[in-house]
Amino acid sequence: MIATEGEEMKMLESNGITQAYKDFTQADYVDPAVRAFEEHRQEFIELMREIRKKNPHISPTDLQKQAEYEMITRPVFRVCFIEKMNFFLLNKYITATCEQIAIRHQTFGFRGPKSRAFYRVQATRRLIGGGDIVKKRIDKEHNKAVDALVQAQEKQTRENTCKIYFDPAHYTVLENIGNFDVVVGRDGGPEGLTVMVDYYTEDGTANAGSDYVPVKGTLTFYPDDKYQKISIEIVDDDVFEEDEHFYLHLRNLRVRTKDGLILDPSRIGGLPVAQLEMPATATIMILDDDHAGVFSFEHDHFQIIESCGHLSIRVQRHSGARGKVVIPYRTSDGTAIGDKHFETKEGELVFDDNQTE
To answer: Any signal peptide, and if so, which residues (predicted)?
Structure first.
């Protein structure tokens, strides 16, 4: 498979990790869960790029599902668990997937900092939606007393604080999609509450104007609203590019009282009536649809007689014909020996833009 950009066969190195991002994740004041989530976001993006390089024609939906599965099931280092079993403490060394580690964190009520694996599973689900995978497993695998405790804690939080967040927080779209919606969810909080939040886009490896249309504005959640949508427009062009991404952020959350006053929820006495919940940043990955094509011989086997003289072999280009591509070729020995049974050949085939054979 060959991919090109412009006139040369060069694959650009894409690195969306900016210095600002590095400074943020390394800062002392950043919550460990937030730091882990942002690190996971970058890892998830790079994994999707790797998968697509191996499978250039995979659909956005299948690409996202495969990346999610690989993130959750990746094995991690051997770890030590102290398991509560029949009032005995048993040190047990095992090799586990990230999902297994995350479930054990909640199963046995470990206190103190949670492991990186725990955050990996949670971050994957928050990126692509679908809720809390650990909570879903607990509902099935644990006794009613544990479930009741978890549900009571969640109910108390929902009743006291309205949470605003992206759901999901990762979108994978083709370059020719045109417009699509990013969903912002709302959960819990006092009845009759109107919440307002600002949003804006930020460049990653994709650039505002040339790759997408930048947006900024304000969403208003009225008392009965459970979600709002932000419309995003992707710019389609005829230039082959590496898969790129950009960000959509939420900020400046505020509430509006019944008499029309706009207040900062963190300045209201007691627990905040509203807050931005992680993830407050969504990632949009743009998959390029201007493929240079896949190249192959018309047949993989040719049978000829020795006296035929010359043989012409056709090379075909399919699944895209964008750009000028140079294909190197050479012969190699099998049971026939070069320059004894056949004339050795080495050179380059040049496919111009839209040329298919």
So the answer is: none
Contact 183, 229 (CB under 8 A): yes
Compute the half-sphere exposure of residue 121: CA atoms within 13 Å on the CB side of its CA. 25
Output the CA angle 84-85-90, nearest 5 degrees: 75
Amino acid (one-letter) located at 313: I
Three-state secondary-structure class, residue 144: helix
Helix (H) or strand (E) segment spanning residue 123 = helix 116-128
CA angle 62, 72, 58 (to 5 degrees): 15
pLDDT tens-digit series, residues 82-100? 333 333 333 333 344 444 4
Q: Number of folded domains in the chain? A: 2
Among 312, 320, 314, residue whose Cα is nearest residue 353: 320
Per-residue DSSP letter, 345? -
Tens digits of residue pLDDT in 3-32: 333 333 333 334 444 444 455 445 555 566
Verify that 244 and 194 share a domain, yes or no. Answer: yes
Residues 169 and 277 in one domain: yes
